[in-house]
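Suppose a colleague, Dr. K., hands you the sequence of a protein chain of 134 amino acids and asks what its three-dimensional shape might be. Before reaching for any lab equipment, you can write down a predicted structure in C-alpha cell form. Begin with the sequence itself:
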Amino acid sequence: MADIGASFGLVEQIANLGEGSLRKYVGATGARQFTLNSLLQVCTVLGLRVTFTVDEELTRRMKPQWEMRDLRMVHARRQPSLGPATLKRILKPAAAELGRRGGKARMAATTPEQHHKTKWAGTSKRGVSNEQRT
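The predicted structure, expressed as C-alpha cells, is then:
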C-alpha cells in the first residue's frame, strides 16, 4: 500500500470493508482469506482489473477431480415439510378426498355387476361373511 501512497484504512473505507479487515487479508499472518467479492472490491480501489481465462493444461489436470453430475438426481424435488399442527388439520380431509377420488375411479372402471361383488369384499357385518350373505 505504501507504494501507491494509500493506507489500509483508506482502502478499506473506499472498498466498503470492515475496519482492520484488509490487514487480515494481506498481512503476514494471513488470518483471513479473500472472498471473491472482497478481492474485486480491493482491486477496483487499487485500479486493477481482473480477467479470468481458461487454462487448458490446468483444466486437463483438474477434470478428473471434478464431481460429475448424477443424472438420476437432476430432477429430484424436495417435499415441503409440514408442521404437526398443519398435518393434524389437513390429514383427515386429504385422506378422505383421496379415498373419494379412488372410489370414483374404481366405479368408472367397473360394471354394475362388479360393483355389487366388490362393494363389501373382505368385510363382514355382524359375523356374517360375504359367502353366507349371497
